[in-house]
């Protein structure tokens, strides 16, 4: 499968959000990556349902919703109703991860688990067959513009080996510090989905930057 590009809306210009949504619509990007932060699980607050619904209204591509929140089970149905096609929860925030994953699937969404930089992917051993996607955080969650953590390459390879023969359709997503300087190496390590924030939205030509990332092979 050709790798997917998911621009992170967190890095968009919120004063001109519709323009940036239209830009992604007309680019070679595959998904909108949307970070929901509660100021508790992570030290920042991003946006909630009103903004997500506004994005859904104009987006022509799937919404990849990344929940950086405590007790995400309370809101799964609302995120589905607000347009989420992928719902990713953090392993660190879920007491009953197996149950949460099945609740997401029962809503008809792709079920993902995010793993912080300090968390071992070995903790996914017992749920690997239940996952549609794993989002490897390659920065500490909560803020954009951080430096990429090099240990991510090792975690991709470990996770790909774990999934082999058990969940060969597993998508591995990498979120944080992704740019055209490391994207090819991530793909070669086994990443399927690249979340790009600053690399896209701070570029002089975001559509061209997305094209560059998409065409790597």
Q: Would you kindly provide a written description of the structure presented here, covering whatever features stand out?
A:
The protein is of the alpha/beta class. It has a single domain (4-214), classed as TIM Barrel (Alpha-Beta Barrel), CATH 3.20.20.70. It is 31% helix and 20% strand. It has helices spanning 17-25, 49-58, 76-81, 97-106, 152-163, 183-189, 198-201, 206-214; strands at residues 4-7, 32-37, 63-68, 84-90, 110-115, 133-137, 171-175, 193-196. The chain has an eight-stranded parallel beta sheet. It starts with a strand and ends with a helix.
The count of strands amounts to: 8
Q: Determine the CATH topology.
A: TIM Barrel
Total domain count: 1
Number of helices: 8
N→C terminal distance: 11 Å
CATH level 1 class label: Alpha Beta
Q: Which architecture does the CATH hierarchy give at level 2?
A: Alpha-Beta Barrel
Radius of gyration: 16 Å
Strand content: 15-25%
Give the overall average pLDDT.
96
Q: Note the run of SSEs as H and E.
A: EHEHEHEHEEHEHEHH
The CATH superfamily is Aldolase class I
